[in-house]
Amino acid sequence: MKSSNQQSTRQEPAPAPAAAAEPTSGPLTREELQLAARNHSMPLEALRRELTPPGLHYVLTHFDIPDLDASSWHLRIGGAVERALELSMAALLRDPAITVPVTLECAGNGRSLLEPRPVSQPWIMEAVGTAHWTGVPLAYLLGKAGVLPDAVEVVFTGADAGIQGGVPQQYARSLPIREALRPDVVLAYKMNGADLPPQHGYPLRLVVPGWYGMASVKWLASIEVAKAPFPGFQQKVAYRYQESVDDAGTPVTRIRVRSLMVPPGVPDFFTRKRFLRAGPVMLEGRAWSGEGAVTAVEVGIDGTWLPAHLDKPVGGYAWRKWSLPWVADPGEHVLACRATDITGASQPLEQDWNYQGMGNNVVQRVSVTVE
Amino acid sequence: MKSSNQQSTRQEPAPAPAAAAEPTSGPLTREELQLAARNHSMPLEALRRELTPPGLHYVLTHFDIPDLDASSWHLRIGGAVERALELSMAALLRDPAITVPVTLECAGNGRSLLEPRPVSQPWIMEAVGTAHWTGVPLAYLLGKAGVLPDAVEVVFTGADAGIQGGVPQQYARSLPIREALRPDVVLAYKMNGADLPPQHGYPLRLVVPGWYGMASVKWLASIEVAKAPFPGFQQKVAYRYQESVDDAGTPVTRIRVRSLMVPPGVPDFFTRKRFLRAGPVMLEGRAWSGEGAVTAVEVGIDGTWLPAHLDKPVGGYAWRKWSLPWVADPGEHVLACRATDITGASQPLEQDWNYQGMGNNVVQRVSVTVE
């Protein structure tokens, strides 16, 4: 890291709750606004695009964006391996590369719609994006290092450092061995064919297709194969489905099925309400699931659900385009969309509340005035 | 525009106030959060970089980001000219090009710090960014078209459409002829050497160095040379320094002098408070002014002001780097920075309130815990 004033920090077992305050029905706090100003979501009109460019793709950064120099940067691979490795970017670029299309979504997407509202990054519903990620398959590098038979997890540590829940830490997450060895898990150095932007993990990040974004560790500094489950803050405290602060909960893993719509017509600047001329309009959007293929999208028009046309799947865990022609007649309308995936899971019509505000895939509703 | 469901809109004289509600001391509204989720600021650690990449550079979009096809796009130049022109991107790319380094800042930067708070996009203080903009000098194209002697302004209209203050409109702004003919005003098709990203005005935008960002019209569709002052909403209603809703006010034009600091140390995730080890640390940041060169930056350490070192100016209206070594001793500290420009203008220590929350260049203060 170029900056001289970063603290060195160590990962320690977490004594503190994940949230800084209890869920509230009160107004947004200054701290939540600060987070909303730092982290950005994807404007919904970007759903028209199969791939999301930097600046439109959502970004969540727990701490500061590190300022890393690729020429001096090294990835360390160690722990329960036969051969510890230390790899430069030049070395990684000589390894075989794959490109995977992946829809990434923040696990906290939809949080600010919950009632009461868990107090953290106040996403509405657009914390998503899809990109082509290019790099070395993680399985290939783990093969090079040789995973010992009693290994159970792989721990990924980023260069981003700070304090959360009272715990000084570098951002770190683990994956079970079986997930780490999936052929589509990639150590990416390119996004949509260009070097990673700083905010997306330059020079190297993990991308775990199908999992919520917290698994895809950015600014990757080290990979440690572990013989015991990782006790880090982002694993054991944050990113859990909990009923209350006292509930140990269950870990957040794969992305719940969701669909979103390009809001039709034009917006009012301040209210973001939509205005549309009467007549035919093509409603369109994208749908995705980390549990497998999206098999159906229904569009709700004033409470009546109609099946949408689905384009061919792009493959992997990338979103799938849907569309439905609508003849808009004058008046006030409420549009909605609801996806189902191959497991039979559908988006809920009402909130499925949890303490940290994770995985809220409630259906999107768009109010439109037709003139 | 690819989308079939955009309303055609006309610019009309504006009957409505610029703000959707009166300034308030109350909590942030849902509408303000929606705007904060759509529009993003620059994380302050990006002040380490001379140039700001897409995704870190601030973005404000009044309506939706248009989805334009450069191959069918044309720029129309008309009004009080000798020869109306209609130019394709291919034609523009054959014209002589310049590259200008420019710091752009939103006129509403600092708004949410004001008390009472004008209700609109709730910027804190990071709505800024610096890029190299490459394209055709506007003066060159105006020369090609031939400006008639009685012209007074040039009106720029973007493809982005919606409703603001009750007025259906395409985003449009004007410049006085003398500003439009400045040699550094550019019709840009590249940002930092790459095609414009969608959110920065693809395929073509205006960049007016020294002026707040509202002048640099994105998704440029037409240029109209006018014989009378432009009465559009974004000119006559929005972007004015007003004392109250009834005050006609004065137009917002050039960027007021400002400096910002990279917050030292590491953050707490939720509060964004800073934590730093005792010892030497280099405080650094950037300073800029649309009125001319930055001539001094002072750094406040617990209320004592010290002169910072200034790097050589980059030139034009790009920000200038400053730095000051500090030996941090344990305890609570408040850091601040304050720039002065060649006109003698300095940043205010207390807010200079106005009704729309424009041009709030109050000094930044950063609280740091040194351990």
UniProtKB/TrEMBL annotation, chains A, B:
Matches recorded under PANTHER family: SULFITE OXIDASE, MITOCHONDRIAL (PTHR19372:SF7), SULFITE REDUCTASE (PTHR19372)
Oxidoreductase molybdopterin-binding domain location: 62-233
UniProt-listed Pfam families: Mo-co_dimer, Oxidored_molyb
Cofactor(s) annotated in UniProt: Mo-molybdopterin
Classification via CDD domains: SO_family_Moco_dimer (cd02110)
Family matches, as InterPro entries: Ig_E-set, MoCF_OxRdtse_dimer, Mopterin_OxRdtase_euk, OxRdtase_Mopterin-bd_dom, OxRdtase_Mopterin-bd_sf
Comp. bias regions, Polar residues: 1-11
Protein name: DMSO/TMAO reductase YedYZ molybdopterin-dependent catalytic subunit
GO biological process, one term: sulfur compound metabolic process
Domain of life (superkingdom): Bacteria
Residue ranges of the region described as Disordered: 1-27
UniProt domain Moybdenum cofactor oxidoreductase dimerisation: residue ranges: 258-370
Keywords attached to this entry: Metal-binding, Molybdenum, Oxidoreductase
GO terms for MF: heme binding; molybdenum ion binding; molybdopterin cofactor binding; sulfite oxidase activity
